[in-house]
Amino acid sequence: xxxxxxxxxxxxxxxxxxxxxxxxxxxxxxxxxxxxxxxxxxxxxxxxxxxxxxxxxxxxxxxxxxxxxxxxxxxxxxxxxxxxxxxxxxxxxxxxxxxxxxxxxxxxxxxxxxxxxxxxxxxxxxxxxxxxxxxxxxxxxxxxxxxxxxxxxxxxxxxxxxxxxxxxxxxxxxxxxxxxxxxxxxxxxxxxxxxxxxxxxxxxxxxxxxxxxxxxxxxxxxxxxxxxxxxxxxxxxxxxxxxxxxxxxxxxxxxxxxxxxxxxxxxxxxxxxxxxxxx
Length: 279
Known about the structure:
Blueprint (H helix, E strand, L loop, with lengths): L14 H33 L2 H39 L5 H7 L1 H29 L5 H23 L7 H34 L9 H39 L32
Helix pairs in contact: 1-2, 1-4, 2-4, 2-5, 2-6, 4-5, 5-6
């Protein structure tokens, strides 16, 4: 009992209820995301036209398709989770099964939270893009995060599933569909960004030679500044990922703070002793 993981400060009998609550909360978050996207679509049609309306509709349609794919994945994942519990608990209650497999349960809860959070962030980013107060890059990053979160949920769900389970096969199909829909969001966002930038092409025809030279030098300075900033942000991203992996369970040290024992030193290769010479 003392060796059991203590990463969640809740009672074991509450663990099963927490799984069901998190899965239900994730489903609600996705349903809310679909409703908000429909509202944004209606608003975009009333407030924009031409190229901007075309871009907004394409992006929001791809986001809607992604939300629908995630909704189906969560539904199939819930069915698979129930199947795993029913086939593995034996004479034990559902709460006892979750308590006995607490590490797996905690992973399932964490994955479900990540999917719900990712859906909310995607919708907020799409809202800012449609209102022209956000960046297209935010929407692309959120799409990648959605794909990673759903992959985490699939991995947590299939750990204890039977390989021949029909729900597992459906879950893997849903996962591939989510990845495809996330890629569509990225593609529609990039193409929309290019369309908007082409529409707002800068016109230098009225500039004098001196003005053009000045603008060229200022642009070179900005390019150097952005390159330096990009290098710094990449270093920062690497450090953030290291810390994230560590907090996610990649510690090499034990829970009580004791480090892993150092590996035994390798034996040095003994040289062959010289042969005794005859007198």
